[in-house]
Amino acid sequence: MTENAGTPAETADGTTDGISVDALRRRAFDALTTARERTALLTSCVDEPELTAQHSPLMSPLVWDLAHIGNQEEQWLLRTVGGREAVRPEIDSVYDAFEHPRALRPTLPLLAPREARAYASDIRGRVLDILDSSPLRGGPLLDAGFAFGMIAQHEQQHDETMLITHQLRRGPAALTAPEPPAAEPVDAADLPAEILIPAGQFTMGTSAEPWALDNERPAHHRLVPAFHLDTVPVTNGDYLRFIEDGGYTDERWWAPAGWDQIREHDIAAPLFWRREAGQWTRRRFGTVEPVPADEPVLHVSWYEADAYARWAGRRLPTEEEWEKAARHDPVSGRSRRYPWGDEDPTPERANLGQRHLRPAPAGSYPRGASPLGVRQLIGDVWEWTSSDFLPYPGFVAFPYREYSEVFFGGAHKVLRGGSFAVGDVASRGTFRNWDLPVRRQIFAGFRTARSAGDA
User: Fold this and answer.
1) Would you say 104 is a known binding-site residue?
2) Is 102 within any annotated ligand binding site?
3) The domain 21-168: what is its CATH number?
4) 439 is in an annotated binding site
């Protein structure tokens, strides 16, 4: 099934309508280079002991991520796409993410930081030679530069993972970034609390986005009843009212597994929050600061998001509701790549790519709003949905089952929209993230919904 007119469409030669092979090559080069610059920043701002330390059993040592990035690039772009001889086949097992859980990775014979940097740099140089001569067509891995885009997205996803590790590490701040712009031209208080998304069919997923991953495919129609959606994500100020109303001590609001979780671990606020001298503070990348009331709440689990929604008399949106709000244009009837249209993200439209080290205030980025006026659907915070991570009708695993298929089922919940830590290349209206409902270290928040007709 194809998407509505106006979205990029693949042609027989594997390029995208109106985009030359040279333009696709530049796009791939830029995506790979941007990701590598970010990787370098995340691994050069701390010393070697910090790179080799495991800052949390939930995360890998930073040096593991660095060499894993290089190894994935070697396996897919150097060997598979380029047909070149393996450079370091003996380390494939060490950097196999499915063979070794994160908590055990420090026990592996990891490359030292200097060797890991040299290895990743060597592979990148060889890969750029391949990109320079590739026709970017000749099969699904090559068409429109898919494999290069896949690896750029993979590196940006690990960059986000490494940024999570930076948030978990103790010690002084190692990263800096400018503050996000203030909300303009109005703040959240001047916006409607919620927006009605009319009932009707829309096109969900994609068959045309050249670098879309397997779980985003294929495009298909969904009929979604009318519902109301929060105009902006739930803020820290909103969430504080839940805390102060005894939200963490009232079993009524919690799914049974979530209630067990907060009692077992004595959870009473979002991760990294602490109440000191009558004031709520949070630790953010090595700095302790007052919790800003106007920012989207961050570092909450699915269980916490679900409990808040119940307390507020609402619910989390389904995945299809979220995507309809983010992509459907009720005037043209087509699904767009992003809430604002088909153009790539810009700093004026969304808070992405680690340009800032925090979410922007709720109500920011009016130029990134959806046709109906919903804001900040892309960037700032990942948004939990009520949906389990499941395949779309007609799903085909590509290029390997372990990217998506092995995670399908009721154990993982879907997150949408991306956060300030997500690279532009790994952010679009169809992009699907997933995680366990207990996860709190990720850059996740939420917004709530209610069905039309509900009080």
Assistant:
1) yes
2) yes
3) 1.20.120.450
4) yes
